[in-house]
Amino acid sequence: MTSNADPYSQAVQEFRSRKDAHFKAGQGPLEPAALPDFTGLSYFAPDPAWTFTVPLEPLPQDASAEFILQTNTGETRTMARYGRVQVPLPGGEHSLSVFTPLGEEAPARVFIPFRDATSGQETYGAGRYLDAPVGRDSDGGLLVNVDFNMAYHPYCAYGDGWTCPLPPRERAA
User: Fold this and answer.
1) SS3 for the chain, per residue?
2) How remote is the C-alpha of 18 from its chain's centroid?
3) What are phi and psi of 147, to 5 degrees?
4) Distances from the Cα of 146 to the Cαs of 6, 48, 128, 135, 173, in angstroms?
């Protein structure tokens, strides 16, 4: 990390360095035999253009929030589909489902599993995850900070023995 990096890029790099240190210390999904050669994960360069603060569209009150996510092992994981966000990506706006653990009524963060054009090419084929902070606008509406610079691979991308939820099929808005 260079000292002349902008504050945003520095913050992203520091987050990534902490994650790499966590993995190197054997607290992540890496096999013990891989730890001596581990020098860090591969990342895209931080780019603030991939950060969006967007309104959260909560599910209608009469909709069932319970949602079954498939996993890489064929098991299922039940979460609450909390709502959707519309993200203005290059090539058009996309709608992404936003999840929380069951029973969490006012989350500080939401879980967004997704696939994109890099899946299976430059990133893990099954998709990546975001843990996105939730805030409020001046009128009290819910906002989600969708920062693709903070996207990460699920543990199953690094080795067998992990069960990871798969992103549901989404649609362009």
Assistant:
1) CCCCCCHHHHHHHHHHHHHHHHHHCCCCCCCHHHHHHCCCCCCCCCCHHHEEEEEEEECCCCCCCEEEEEECCCCEEEEEEEEEEEEEECCEEEEEEEEECCCCCCCCEEEEEECCCCECCCECCCCEEEEEEEEECCCCCEEEEEEHHHCECCHHHCCCCCCCECCCCCEEC
2) 17
3) -115, 100
4) 19, 11, 13, 11, 16
Asked whether the CA dihedral 115, 27, 43, 160 is positive or negative, the reply is negative
- Structure confidence by residue, pLDDT tens digits, 91-108: 889 999 999 999 888 899
* pTM, two decimal places: 0.88
Mean pLDDT of the chain: 89
Is the torsion defined by CA of 97, 100, 104, 110 positive or negative?
Answer: negative
CA nearest to 8, candidates 117, 110, 16: 16
